[in-house]
Write a structure and sequence with these properties.
Distance between the termini: 29 Å
Shape: globular
Number of helices: 0
Oligomer: single chain
Low-confidence stretches: none
Number of domains: 2
């Protein structure tokens, strides 16, 4: 995540490593913290706005698409009031991709598979790939080389 100072010419103040695929940001009511949801990390992080450092991780589960912070929403108790299990929507599988051989030694990716009722949502976050190149994602019989039969995923 990048933090900028506002003004006529925005200035980069800090680059803060937060985790896998930040998606959703919300400031605290007093501006002392910023909360960032991690879509492929199944958690949110709290950032201290004075130090620009991650000071806490908060497990939030499943592929997070947004984040809302409500100051003093639960002034007493463990914070779990009015929270209920997600049922089937909470069944998330997390996989890690591995390039065949050492074709892309710096390439890595994570995959989130979420059940959406009649279909499954597959999201892939990849980095270290060669730009303007084509890649194919396949299911393999084995996670050990030579991987066995490969079944390409159709998009």
């Amino acid at each position: 995540m990048k933090a900028f100072r506002c003004g006529a010419t925005p200035e980069l103040v800090a680059t803060i490593p937060v985790g896998n695929l930040p998606h959703g940001i919300w400031p605290s009511g007093d501006g002392s913290r910023v909360y960032v949801a991690l879509e492929n990390g199944e958690q949110a992080v709290a950032i201290d706005t004075l130090s620009n450092q991650v000071i806490a991780t908060i497990p939030i589960g499943q592929t997070t698409q947004a984040l809302v912070y409500v100051p003093n929403a639960v002034p007493n108790g463990d914070g779990a009031q009015n929270v209920s299990p997600l049922g089937e929507a909470a069944n998330t599988a997390r996989l890690h991709l591995q390039p065949e051989g050492n074709a892309l030694p710096d390439g890595q990716a994570s995959v989130a598979v979420n059940s959406l009722g009649l279909l499954d949502l597959v999201q892939i976050a990849a980095e270290g790939l060669t730009p303007k190149s084509q890649y194919q994602v396949c299911l393999a019989e084995s996670d050990d080389a030579p991987f066995g039969k490969l079944e390409p995923l159709q998009c």
